[in-house]
Amino acid sequence: MQELGPFRVNPDGKTLSRNRHAWNNVANVIFRESPAGVGFSYSNTSSENHESGDTRTAVDAYNFLLNWLERFPEYKGRDFYIAGESYSGHYVPQLATVIVALRKLGATSMNLKGIFVGNPYLDDYKNTRGRYEFLWNHGVISDEVWGNISEHCSFGRLEDKACGQAKAKASVRTGNIDRYNIYAPVCIRSRDGSIHSQ
Questions:
Q1: Are residues 110 and 137 in the same domain?
Q2: Structure confidence at residue 99 (pLDDT)
Q3: Disulfide-capable partner of 52 in 35, 70, 103, 128 (CB 3.0 to 4.6 Å)?
């Protein structure tokens, strides 16, 4: 119900309206949650929900696509793209690797043309550096605060006290913002359960 999906939730919280920027306005889109056990996805064998991993997720996604194409053969041979966000920075290229490897062996005819990843979660340390650099580039933290972070933080596994203090100053200066959309109003929940912009 957010970003690229076909609908938006209206302010009344009960009804929907069409998203005029939805990807399905220009392409056929399949939304798939993975691994099994997250969101509304499931496995008929509940123990499988605890046995996931990146390789298993790629194989499961590939098997899903095979079965889906068998069910809807009119989509076989069409240009095909894989997209995802966040931890799909791992899932998307790994699924693409499975498809490309099987295509080279002649074991699949999927017409994979490319991949997209948005805000990919690739590496915790690089993502942390990128978050602070993004805030600095958008004027949320000052040159002084960013300089202090850059000087005292290596963004490696271990950081010293000076790095922690530098990051803390950035947190104080950014205030209450949505870190995923710094230009959006922050929603707060009232005591009665209603949500409104700050």
A1: no
A2: 95
A3: 35
pLDDT in tens, 10-19: 888 899 999 9
Pair 42, 100 in one domain: yes
The total of other beta-carbon atoms located within 10 Å of residue 95's CB is 26
Average pLDDT over residues 78-95: 92
The answer to whether 133 and 123 have CB atoms below 8 angstroms apart is no
Indicate if 133 and 115 belong to the same structural domain.
Answer: no
pLDDT (0 to 100) of residue 121: 83
Last residue within a domain, chosen from 122, 151, 172: 122
- Are 36 and 60 within 8 A, CB to CB? yes
Domain's final residue, options 78, 96, 122: 122
Helix, strand, coil percentages for the chain (3-state, nearest 5): 40, 15, 40
Q: Which residue, chain included where needed, has tokens 């509304």?
A: 40
142 and 188 assigned to the same domain: yes
| Residue owning tokens 């009665």 | 192
pTM, full prediction: 0.68
Return the bridge partners of 189, or none: 195
Q: Tokens 């043309």: give the residue.
A: 113
Question: Domain for residue 1, yes or no?
Answer: no
Q: What percent of the chain has pLDDT over 90?
A: 34
First to last CA, the chain: 21
Domains contained in the chain, number = 2
